Amino acid sequence: MPRDDGPVHPRYPLSTTVVIREPKTGAGTLARLKNISLSGCYLETPQQIPENSRVRVVLQTQLIHADVWGTVRRRDADGIGVQFTNGTTVDDWKRLQAFIQQLGAAAPTSAVPLAQAHGKPNT
């Protein structure tokens, strides 16, 4: 999730289980997705993943299957904020984009700009 004053993507509440994969071993851990945007997501997990770690987030529901790479940008007592960097494939990224667009179309008033969610003014 960006910490700079760059482009702001709305995030959408979404509660589902995802898999976090470690790049070196491929080992997977279940986590609870709490919200998502085109920039990244927040995952509830007890796993201690250090900031700036590279991770794969595998989203698989009835509505989407996407495997995306990201970087852990923040860690708190409940989980991690992941900034997406790219899809494992171009098709994974396109599926993520289409899914985010569907969320926006279904609930445009429920989105919260990321900067606002972090206590920054919405620019």
Give an account of the 3D structure.
The chain has 123 residues and is α+β, with helices and mostly antiparallel strands. The protein has one domain (10-107): Thrombin, subunit H (Beta Barrel). It is 17% helix and 45% strand. It is built from two helices and seven strands. It has a six-stranded antiparallel barrel with strand order 1-2-3-6-5-4. The longest helix has 17 residues, at 90-106. It is globular and about 35 Å long.
Could you give a short account of the major beta sheet?
6 strands, antiparallel, barrel
Strand content: 35-45%
Give the full name of the CATH homologous superfamily: predicted glycosyltransferase like domains
**CATH-level-2 architecture:** Beta Barrel
**Total of helices:** 2
Uncertain residue segments? 114-123
Spatial strand sequence of the major β-sheet: 1-2-3-6-5-4
Helix- and strand-based class? alpha+beta
**Number of domain modules:** 1
Mind telling me the CATH class? Answer: Mainly Beta
How much is the radius of gyration in Å? 14 Å
What sequence of helices (H) and strands (E) makes up the elements?
A: EEEEEEHEH
Shape from CA axes?
A: globular
Work out the number of β strands: 7
Q: State the distance separating the first and last CA atoms.
A: 16 Å
DSSP helix fraction: 10-25%
According to CATH, the fold-level topology is Thrombin, subunit H
Mean pLDDT comes to 83
